Amino acid sequence: MTEIQDRAAGALYGLAVGDALGMPTESLSRPEIVARYGLLLEEFQPGAADQPLAPGLPAGAVTDDTEQALLLADLVIEGDGEVDEAEFARRLLAWEEDMRARGSLSLLGPSTKRALSALVAGAAREETGRTGTTNGAAMRITPVGVATPAGDPDVLIGRVVTASRVTHNTGVALAGAAAVAAAVSAGVAGATVPEATGAAVTAAGRAAGRGHWVAAADVAARITWATGLTAGRPADEVLDLVYTLVGTSLATQESVPAAFAFLAAAPEDPWLACRLAASAGGDCDTIAAITGAIGGACHGGSAFPGAARATVSAVNGLRLDEVAAALLTVRGS
């Protein structure tokens, strides 16, 4: 496997590993997580019987973050980098029906659900995502970053907007998604975590002017602030700072900067960064998935334990190396 292949696969493995680490802790408070799992999650855990969104899931199971990212990956591959928005909406609705049939509680997020309901009711695609501010676009955008070269930010932002606006057509959501995609794209091209973070800040600043304006903190500025807050600090301080100051909710302007903050705390160890994210409380699976995707792009799949990669592949039936190879073919074209 070449370095670029390892980094492309690492982005997808990191996404899935982070998602699976955060599955049992999603929607729990930081004190609840400490009481159940200790100060820092050490390994995959099953979803407890009282887990709000993933009761009874086996250790290593992924959630909507990975599943929707792979759904988007299929469309990116089919469209040679471009996403058919109408087909994306149809597949998201079909995915939710399949999840409901499987008895899953991990369904469409609030922004996506609201937008697709409006679309079914006859609203124009340009308007359905005008209130979408949560992190759904950012959580599933990694395949766009893998498939898009890092040299032309305008192309990358254009693809992010096309892949996001049907559900998240606001400046804040597009800024968050662009930050993640740019960091992943830069990582696949060979960037370090600090370099990828710089690319993310630039992309977030450019994308913030796209879509509908909503009152929200600036994503680019919050990434810069959050990474400065946690760099070089010990794990317990990092967790407290992110939980109390940066925020770990569904809001894009909290969860995306939180992911970069965990990467800044462990820039050479994406496995540790994912465990930090999964231990923080709040939207743990999404924050850890974003953390893992960027860390994996910067370091390659080998930065995560082989047993962890094998577990997420086996438990969920994933073929991430094949998906990564197809996305790289799009990137090369």
Structural commentary:
The protein contains 18 helices and no strands. With 333 residues, it is an all-alpha fold. Helices cover 65% and strands 0% of the residues. The protein has helices at 3-22, 30-37, 64-78, 85-101, 110-120, 125-128, 136-140, 142-147, 153-164, 171-188, 193-207, 219-230, 235-246, 252-265, 270-278, 284-299, 306-316, 320-332. The protein has one domain (3-332): ADP-ribosylglycohydrolase fold, CATH 1.10.4080.10. The model has no long low-confidence stretch (mean pLDDT 95). It is globular, with a radius of gyration of 17 Å.
CATH homolog superfamily:
ADP-ribosylation/Crystallin J1
Q: What portion of residues is helical?
A: 55-70%
Helix- and strand-based class?
A: mainly alpha
Our measurement of the CA-to-CA distance between the termini, rounded to an integer number of angstroms, reads 20 Å
CATH topology heading: ADP-ribosylglycohydrolase fold
Please mark out the parts with pLDDT under 50 across 5 or more consecutive residues, or reply none. Answer: none
Shape estimate: globular
- CATH top level label: Mainly Alpha
Mean pLDDT: 95
**How many helices does DSSP assign?**
18
Number of distinct beta strands: 0
Task: Quote the beta fraction.
Answer: under 5%
Order of helices and strands: HHHHHHHHHHHHHHHHHH
How many domains make up the 3D coordinates?
Answer: 1
Q: What kind of sheet is the major sheet?
A: none
